[in-house]
Design a protein that fits this description.
The protein has one domain (9-297): Vaccinia Virus protein VP39 (Rossmann fold, 3-Layer(aba) Sandwich). It is built from 11 helices and 7 strands. The chain has helices spanning 9-26, 47-54, 56-69, 73-93, 109-112, 128-138, 188-200, 215-218, 227-236, 250-255, 267-274, and strands at 98-102, 121-126, 149-153, 175-179, 207-213, 259-265, 290-297. It has a 7-stranded mixed beta sheet with strand order 3-2-1-4-5-7-6. 44% of the residues are buried.
Length: 301
């Protein structure tokens, strides 16, 4: 059974909306080299917020508040969206047949990447309250083609990922798992259970992409860019960070759990790859305490 720190449905919904709002603001960046590709995020926001972000002067005020409250968050969401999109595109070209989005929130990839995912079955796994909201929001995108989606409502406090097996997911098909913005709120035991399920119920060609925070953040060592503000923010919301990986040890961590590291992007790498503007200069900074890994099922050869 996979357990996480208890959170209310209202908090889960608020978090999903906040992340989508950052993506929506990023999609309005003037420089296409920096712009967040999630042009659909704004259509999934509540009407009032959608109108606010559609007014550029007010959107700039909101963005300034984001920068003060969570330094690095806005640009991290731009970089993370681009990076995971790239891995989805690469994985589809390599023949995956399933995409499983764990903690999907208001993810729009089944719509935005419809052409890439035309031969891929998408499973969105999330808290029932958040997923109910997502399905209602998705009705606003009825005019846009989408990949085939199966919604798997899952209360991580009382259920395990076995619910996937009852929803049509096939362990024999090559699959990409996206685990975006989730594991830092789980217990170490819960993280292991998720990775164990994937290791034991995914074809050899399968892989997982996820972001993680450094263990020092969990232990209170807030000497990374944006760390102190972020720790205060999540603690105030009653969702403190509970899991991290010691900086520089992700390869060993994954190998011990039956995975081999394909790539790992550090904050500096994310900035260079995804936040370099048309003029060749880096536009902004991301969180200094988060890496994104892509790992394949199977032990190191």
């Amino acid at each position: 059974m996979v357990k996480v720190v208890s959170v209310t449905k209202s908090k889960v919904k608020s978090t999903a909306v906040g992340v989508a709002a950052m993506r929506a603001m990023g999609a309005q960046e003037r420089d296409p080299s920096v712009r967040n590709p999630d042009y659909l995020a704004i259509r999934l926001l509540p009407p009032g917020l959608r109108i606010l972000l559609g007014l550029r002067p007010l959107a700039r005020l909101v963005l300034r508040q984001y920068h003060r409250t969570l330094p690095g968050a806005y640009y991290f969401h731009i970089a993370r969206t681009k990076h995971i999109d790239a891995i989805v595109t690469q994985s589809a070209a390599q023949g995956i047949r399933q995409l499983v989005i764990l903690g999907a929130g208001l993810d729009t990839r089944a719509y935005r990447l419809h052409d890439v995912l035309k031969d891929v079955k998408v499973y969105e796994v999330d808290y029932p309250g958040t997923q109910e909201k997502k399905r209602a929001c998705a009705a606003k995108l009825a005019d846009i083609p989408r990949a085939g989606i199966s919604y798997v409502p899952l209360d991580f406090n009382i259920q395990g990922l076995d619910a996937l097996l009852a929803s049509g997911y096939s362990p024999s098909l090559a699959t990409l798992f996206i685990w975006e913005g989730v594991c830092m709120y789980l217990t170490p035991e819960a993280v292991d259970k998720v990775l164990e399920f994937i290791r034991d119920h995914a074809a050899p060609e399968s892989s997982i992409v996820f972001d993680y925070i450094f263990k020092g953040m969990v232990e209170g060592r807030c000497d990374y860019y944006g760390a102190r503000e972020s720790s205060r923010y999540v603690a105030k919301r009653g969702e403190p960070y509970t899991f991290g990986i010691e900086e520089g040890t992700a390869r060993e961590f994954l190998a011990a759990r039956g995975f081999r590291l394909a790539s790992e992007f550090t904050p500096d790498m994310l900035e260079r790859a995804y936040l370099t503007g048309s003029g060749g200069r880096t536009t902004g900074k991301v969180y200094g305490y988060t890496n994104i890994v892509h790992a394949r099922v199977g032990p190191v050869g």
